[in-house]
Structure formats: C-alpha cells, structure tokens
Amino acid sequence: MNPIFAVFLTIFRLKRTCPECKRDQVVPASKRLESVRCKFCGADVPPRK
Ligand SMILES: [Zn+2]
Predict the structure, then answer these.
(1) Is 44 helix (H, G, I), strand (E, B) or coil?
(2) Using CA atoms in the order 20, 8, 28, 19, what is the torsion angle rounded to 10 degrees?
(3) How far is the CA of 2 from the centre of ligand 1 (A)?
(4) Which of 9, 19, 21, 45 is deepest in the core (most CB within 10 A)?
(5) Residue 12: its pLDDT value, please?
C-alpha cells in the first residue's frame, strides 16, 4: 500500500467529532477505544462505533 495513503487512512480512522461543539479532532491511537476529552470544549467524546 502507498505509505502516504496508509497515513491518511490512520488519521481518518482516529478522527472524531465532538458531540458538543461539532469540531473534529484526531485522537491518539492509544485512546482509540476510550472516550477522550474534547480539546476545544472539554466535553467527553465517545469512541466511534
Ligand atoms: Zn467539543
């Protein structure tokens, strides 16, 4: 696979939209299965199903 495409795919999978402020953010791979705190508003952002 094209390495640049692989990086893009990884970032796409780790991207989450905050339910409160609707802003996108990239979650670290280690937090993939956990809720994270929105870096913009502080709300909990649950993992994508
Ligand atoms: Zn937010």
Answers:
(1) strand
(2) 10
(3) 33
(4) 45
(5) 76
CB 21 within 8 Å of CB 1: no
pLDDT digits (tens, 9 = 90+) for 9-26: 887 778 999 999 999 999
- What is the 5 CA–ligand 1 centroid distance (Å)? 28
pLDDT more than 90, % of the chain:
55
The Å distance, Cα 3 to ligand 1 centre, comes to 31
CB 24 within 8 A of CB 1: no
Cα(26) to centroid(ligand 1), Å: 12
What separation in Å is there between the alpha carbon of 42 and the centre of ligand 1? Answer: 6
Q: What predicted TM-score, i.e. pTM, was given to this entire model?
A: 0.70
